[in-house]
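quick one before i forget lol
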Amino acid sequence: MDSAIELLAPAGNWDCVGAAIENGADAVYFGLDIGFNARARATNFHASDLPRLMELLHRQSVRGYVTLNTLIFTDELPRLEENVRLLAAAGVDAVLVQDIGAARLVRAICPGLELHASTQMTLTTAAAIEQVRELGIQRVVLARELSIREIERIRSETTMPLEVFVHGALCVAYSGQCLTSESLGGRSANRGQCAQACRLPYDLICDGELQDLGDVRYLLSPQDLAAHELIPQLLAAGVRSLKIEGRLKTPEYVANVCQHYRRAIDAAVSGVATSIQGYRLTDQQRRELELSFSRGLSPGWLEGCDHKRLVPGRSSSKRGVLLGYTKGLDRQRLTVDLVCPLALGDGIVLEGDRASGSEIGGRVYEIWRAGRRLDRADQGLVEVMLQRGLLDGVQIPDGVAVYKTDDPQLTKRLRRSF
């Protein structure tokens, strides 16, 4: 494995740090609960945690980067200076900044502290990158709206180390610079308080007339990014740090995603995965990846702009993987034609109007096939029983999509990894 290729994982809490370390991350990024952090809703770490945290990471040869990636107000500069000195004393490996003034302050008071430009600096050209180099920036997290071809062009025109997001949630605004949250609810996304306005259902009015959108209501909600198959192309384009989004996600998510991208990077470096062949997940691996968290997976902008692929508009939150389709309901027994495995205890949901909260879902209590009770079924027709009374008086037509939303056995296996 080429040590120059970095897998960078999110860490919203101590369990996420452990999950990242034990599942192949080379570095983690995290925020502090003392502010200047674009994920204020994450658990985050207290300043007093820093020495122990950095000792743990360095003992495992893992780097630790701290996010100071919000816009800074003038009256906050003394507190920012205090925090920067604290980070330097704790031995953090780098800080990520969005604010140009913050970058200048860090360079002035702690010139030995490595500086990374956040994706929210919106760096999309080599000329812009060379401009921030003068601030002392030593690595750039490129804007997420770039294609691999554009990244290649940037690499050919600059020697700056490049970092790119390869997995996780995408923002419909340009690299997170969203004003919608603040204008609608007074919560600035650039101050760590994003209200996720892009995940709401919307109406569309064209020339004064309300358009019939059917079930396409989530007009601003992108699917999640998944670039595991594009790792060889990204490395060939000169990317040296591959970043996973998710400081608000669970440690199981961190473990799961790190496992897959560790394999993808190793396969690309060893030549097993090439730009032609790519790194292919098995059907089971893809389902597992989606189960940890997915709004549907796409290559984002890496293959260029494809708006309908990026924003299908039918959902905005985790749905899971397609389990099958309904084939009838007899009292409490729901017949489902399975296209992927189902086990007792799994969580399922029947596709419905998510915006109105009318979807039906629950845990699987019993599975039957041809009069036999099963613990697990892979494919074909089965009868499923959920919580008693859940389906009383419900009319469920044939052909309704059923999604698997939770797999306790997968969760247990991922927890064992850390």
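fyi The mean pLDDT is 92.
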